Inverse folding.
């Protein structure tokens, strides 16, 4: 098991580039299963989750090559087959193969997926939507089986704007007969990127980025070359790293509009944020003010940035109230922050954070992907050294984050425990 040893107290300064979006890459790679052609995807981050998806595609018969940050998928040999529990449990996004496999082959059998334990993420919305499209669903012994001789377009109204369900139903709908309309759809930028990818393959889809998506089914999809959008969560994490260390950090390769909720809150907290065409510069002003946060579906404040923003609030002047409305178990990082001297009280799905003058280094554990990133941020601002364990969670969403931060003046060492 690897750990990070982090010596805090250094002011970060310089330029750091965000990679392609993990949360856009994974559904796009799943969507390659919809065609027997060749899909070339650029700006793919080299992350554990991406490697697991590569393994999953290969298991299904695709020929997959990953070179630098480009992945090429030849789907001519793909066959729908039972996917083992071991493979499915490696990450949550493995459930995204459900829609494309039943859309292209009419049948699929998968185990319930794994992933970070941050709260309940049931499959009921996915399965309810597929049933509306004409699939017959059964669940036995931890496996989901779906069959349909021909999916037929219909109107689907999601109970909540689930990102995963929206993506799965889009991928099922593009090859369905007739028109599919998804109402109360999730609006995330990653769904817009998936729409652009599918339309370039020959799909007929409009509305991504709004709460109503309309799909005209087509008979087949072809080859495509696509570049994934930048990762807004990675970019946001780097922005907070600059703010926490009172530094001067420019994050390049970003779409600033995707960062609007974070930019607004950082400015409210007293951080100077300058926005360029494809970059954002964050400069500490020596003063951090407490702000309140409430996570919401896009375009609200993202749940994937909640723990990082909490790290910033631990050293802000005043008391902030952070409400988590998306995942009920997403405060597991709070005990780890307390080990570092943070003053945080939990009341249900709300955290009351009273800023302290400084944090202290400690031995802490990453409880999930974003909590691990937040603990790195806290360690960068803390006195003395911090030992951070379970960093395999962090590698699921950040490509060699220690190398990037060391280039800005941080002191982070990856060691074998």
């Amino acid at each position: 098991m690897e750990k990070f040893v982090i010596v805090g107290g250094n002011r970060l300064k310089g330029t750091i580039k965000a990679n392609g979006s993990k949360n856009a890459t994974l559904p796009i790679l799943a969507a390659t299963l919809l065609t027997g052609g060749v899909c070339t995807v650029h700006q793919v981050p080299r992350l554990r989750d991406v490697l697991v998806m590569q393994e999953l595609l290969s298991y299904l018969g695709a020929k997959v090559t990953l070179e630098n940050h480009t992945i090429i998928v030849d789907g001519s040999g793909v066959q729908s087959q039972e996917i083992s529990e071991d493979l499915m449990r490696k990450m949550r996004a493995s459930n995204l193969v459900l829609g494309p496999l039943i859309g292209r082959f009419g049948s699929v059998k998968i185990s319930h997926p794994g992933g970070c334990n941050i709260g309940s993420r049931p499959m009921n919305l996915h399965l309810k939507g597929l049933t509306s499209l004409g699939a017959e669903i059964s669940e036995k012994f931890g496996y989901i089986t779906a069959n349909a001789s021909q999916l037929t377009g219909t109107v689907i109204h999601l109970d909540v704007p689930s990102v995963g369900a929206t993506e799965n139903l889009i991928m099922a709908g593009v090859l369905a007969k007739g028109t599919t309309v998804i109402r109360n759809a999730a609006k995330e930028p990653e769904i817009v990127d998936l729409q652009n990818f599918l339309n370039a393959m020959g799909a007929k889809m409009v509305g991504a980025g709004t709460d109503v998506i309309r799909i005209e089914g087509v008979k087949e999809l072809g080859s495509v070359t696509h570049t994934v959008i930048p990762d807004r969560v990675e970019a946001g994490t780097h922005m907070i790293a600059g703010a926490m260390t009172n530094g001067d950090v420019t994050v390049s390769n970003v779409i600033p509009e995707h960062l609007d909720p974070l930019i607004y809150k950082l400015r409210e907290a007293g951080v100077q944020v300058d926005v360029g065409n494809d970059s954002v510069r964050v400069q500490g002003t020596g003063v951090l003010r407490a702000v309140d946060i409430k996570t919401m579906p896009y375009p609200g404040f993202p749940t994937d940035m909640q723990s990082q923003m909490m790290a910033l609030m631990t050293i802000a002047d005043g008391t902030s109230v952070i409400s988590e409305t998306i995942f009920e178990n997403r405060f597991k990082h709070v005990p780890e922050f307390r080990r570092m001297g943070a003053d945080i009280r939990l009341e249900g799905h709300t955290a009351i954070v009273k800023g302290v003058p400084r944090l202290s280094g400690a031995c802490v554990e990453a409880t999930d992907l974003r909590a691990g990133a937040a603990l790195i941020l806290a360690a960068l601002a803390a006195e003395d050294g911090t030992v951070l364990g379970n960093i395999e969670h962090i590698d699921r969403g950040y490509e060699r984050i220690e190398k990037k931060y060391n280039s800005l003046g941080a002191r982070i060492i990856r060691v074998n425990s």
Q: What stands out?
A: The chain has two domains: 2-19+231-416, 22-216. The chain is about 30% helix and 25% strand. The mean pLDDT is 95. The longest strand covers residues 2-7.
